[in-house]
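Q: what sequence does this backbone want?
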């Protein structure tokens, strides 16, 4: 049986690609646990506030449309 190699990818390039990925990940400045928790909390707070604001706008428009068509 002949080995199948993907077109455009040479035999040794796959391992070089993985090695390059690992090398790049070592250069990354990772957040500390405290920073991660703070930013996660911040994202959750912003998501909840945005949900409340959008929910209030939706309720207001629904109320307005209901009153507009109920008067007909």
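A:
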């Amino acid at each position: 049986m002949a080995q199948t190699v993907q077109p455009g990818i040479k035999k040794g390039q796959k391992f070089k690609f993985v090695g390059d990925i690992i090398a790049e990940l070592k250069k990354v400045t990772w957040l500390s646990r405290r920073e991660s928790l703070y930013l996660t909390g911040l994202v959750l707070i912003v998501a909840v506030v945005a949900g409340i604001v959008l929910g209030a706008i939706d309720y207001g428009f629904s109320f307005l449309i209901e009153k507009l068509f109920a008067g007909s």
